[in-house]
Amino acid sequence: MRALRDSGWRVIAPVRPGSAGRLPDGVIAVEADLTVKTDVEAAVDTAAGEPGAPLRAVVNLVGGFAMGGKVHETPVEDFEAMLRLNLRPTYLVTAAALPHLVEAGGGSIVCVSSRAALAPFPGAAGYVTAKAAVLAFADAVAVEYKKQGVRVNTVLPSVIDTPLNRDEQPGADTSRWVTPDEIATVIEFLAGDASAPTSGARIPVYGQS
């Protein structure tokens, strides 16, 4: 968000109730549950509602990870929870934003998948499937809306250097992880006009891992 704000974007960020104070200065908060269609539509309408500043870019950041057992040990409810958390918000936000982007003459959508979508590991079938589905969905939208000037690209981070990941992996070599700022730089490039010729790309953001 800071990278986009600092580049001159008007940034609208959906947040959970009561968490707007965590956003950087200059970022406009909209309380919304991005798994709820009406909340998503209201948030997108806010983003597109400024006269003279049409919606030109959408960044789908919502997602999450939960470790589990092997497939036969994983309840279907847990499997579906990963789809709901990682795929449903991306679908709802993209679907709500597309008419505005088309009306504006085009724009950029950036989705966030994961290296795990291409290199699965045991105990995460739900997460791996969901992130692979995000990748396939982004590819499909890129094809469907190419003639309307809407570009869709996906970044695939490896392990992200966050406090939570450091707590959960205390013995890891964090120097090999990718930082949020490094990911933000790639997203900012894909959102902007500098990447205008690029659509349907799958961008590895792996750090040194």
Automatic annotation (TrEMBL):
SUPFAM superfamilies xrefs: NAD(P)-binding Rossmann-fold domains (SSF51735)
Organism superkingdom: Bacteria
Annotated PROSITE patterns: ADH_SHORT
UniProt xrefs under InterPro entries: NAD(P)-bd_dom_sf (IPR036291), Sc_DH/Rdtase_CS (IPR020904), SDR_fam (IPR002347)
Keyword Oxidoreductase among UniProt keywords: yes
Keywords for the protein's UniProt record, in alphabetical order: Oxidoreductase
Family: Belongs to the short-chain dehydrogenases/reductases (SDR) family.
UniProt name for this protein: Short-chain dehydrogenase
Species name: Winogradskya humida
Source taxonomy: Bacteria, Bacillati, Actinomycetota, Actinomycetes, Micromonosporales
